[in-house]
Amino acid sequence: MTSILAVASYLPPRSVAVADHLAELGIEVDAGLYQQYYGFGRIRRDPPGNLAEQLVAAGRRLDRLATDAPRVRYLVHAPTIAHTAPYPHTPLWQARAELGLHQALPFTLSQHACASALLAIDTCGRLLAADGDPDALALLLTGEKTFTGVAQFIADSAVLGEGVAAVLIGPGGDRDRVLSYATRTLGEFHEAPELSPRLQEEFQGRYTEVLAEVILAATRQAGLTTADITLVLPHNVNRISWWRVLTRAGLPKSRLFLDNQAELGHCFGADPFLGYQAALASGRLRPGDHYVLTAAGLGATLAATVVRH
C-alpha cells in the first residue's frame, strides 16, 4: 500500500499583501471582497528567484533524503501550468542533479492542473507496486513560479502565491497510508479560465456538486463514512465555495483546514501538502486519523485522496 513517508516545503520569505498585489497587477476588483469573504490576506513571492531553486530548496528540507537519495527511483514534478520555465530551461532536470538523484527517472504530470499532485501520488504508487522493490521510493515536487499574470489571479476564485512541497512516497509504511483516490474530469470546461459567460455559470453550478461527489467517492472507496474523516486538506481557493462543497458532502465546516489561506494564498498543487504540514504542527492530526487531500484543476479535473495518518 502506498504511503506518504515525509513532507517538506519551501516558501519564499517575501510576503505581499493581497490588496497591494492586485493593485500592482492593475486588476480592478474589490480587494476587501477577497480578504473578508474569500479568505485571502497575503501571498509569498520571489520575483528574482527561479523554479529550480525552489524545487531544490524543498527537496533539501526532507531530512531523510540525504540517506534515502539512492533509493529514489522516480522524480516527479506535478505543476499546474505545463510550461514552468522559459525555454530552454528544465527545472526538473536541474533539481535532479542538485539533489543527487542521478538514478531517478524524471517526468512531469500537469494534465490535471492543480489536481496533478494527487494524480502523481496515485501514479507513483502504481509504479512502485509494479516494480516490486519494497525499498524503492518516489519523490514528488509540486508548486511553481507565478511568472505570468494569468498565474497570479483567478477571478472570484484565488490569488496565487509561490510555494513548493516535496513529498517522499514509498510502497509501504505504518503512517500516512493512502487508502483511495477518486477523480473526475469535466471536459466541457476545458477552456477555463477563458470560459464563456454561459459555461462559467454552468461550471459554478456543477463545481460544488461534483467535487462533493468525488470526496464522497474516495471516502467510500476507503471503506469509510464522512463521520470517519477528521480533516479535509484542500487547495486554497474561495472559502465560500468550500463551505458549499462541505455542505453538499455532509461534512461540518470544522473539518475544513484552510489555516494557510490567509497567509499563503493558493500555491497551486502544493496547497494540500502545505496544509498537511500546518495541521501536523498544530496538533490537528493524530495517529489513526483519516484525512482527505483534495483539489480541483482548471479544465476541469476534480480529485480526492483519503489517507490514514
TrEMBL record:
Domain spans labelled Beta-ketoacyl-[acyl-carrier-protein] synthase III C-terminal: 220-308
InterPro entries, A to Z: ACP_syn_III_C, Thiolase-like
BP GO annotations: secondary metabolite biosynthetic process
Keyword terms: Acyltransferase, Transferase
Superkingdom as given in the UniProt entry: Bacteria
GO molecular-function terms, A-Z: acyltransferase activity
SUPFAM superfamilies found in the cross-reference section: Thiolase-like
PANTHER family: 3-OXOACYL-[ACYL-CARRIER-PROTEIN] SYNTHASE 3, BETA-KETOACYL-[ACYL-CARRIER-PROTEIN] SYNTHASE III
Protein's name according to its UniProt entry: 3-oxoacyl-ACP synthase
Gene source species: Micromonospora maris
